[in-house]
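Shipment paperwork, digital attachment
Item: protein structure file
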Amino acid sequence: MGTRNLTVVFHNQEAKIASYGQFDGQPDSLGIKLLKFISNPRNTENLKEILPKVRLWNDKDQKQQDEFLESIDCINGILNDKQKEAFKKRYPFRYRERYGKLTEGQILEVLLEFAHLDEIATTDAYDFASDSLFCEWAYVIDYDKNTFEVYKGLNTSGISEEDRFYSLYDGENDYYPVKIIASFPLDDLPDENEFLLDCQS
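Attachment content:
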């Protein structure tokens, strides 16, 4: 089902992951997948170990990538097999992001596969939370606040300065940024049934 969504992870006061998803963003799909992942202590331990070297993709990265693509004679952004191999060698994680056909929520598992890299730049879709007409669900894992938060789209009721995504609102759109509907302590996560009940609104 085409339910657009966002998965965000905060660590050391920074958004380290802001991953857009096109399908299955509702709590009984993506929400449960993320809940299962962070309910496994080993997953959380491994993820927190590599988060210090994870950051969001930026304009400088994009410029360098564009120059690299030009250097391998890729002008239109479409890579042939030889160019894909070159891209994979230069940008192994980004190759996995772009061409790996990730399922919803899989970004966290994929990060663990690349723990050997010195630095990992993840695609920055953070601003997608700004318009809840399109962002139907968002999930935030915040290791600073020790919370797993669920946000819902189609928010026409407003937003306050205390809301996490308040700074994204431009003051002109009828749809505000996504609004929080549930928050759970990471050290006291609910079971799946409790999670789904709390996500109803």
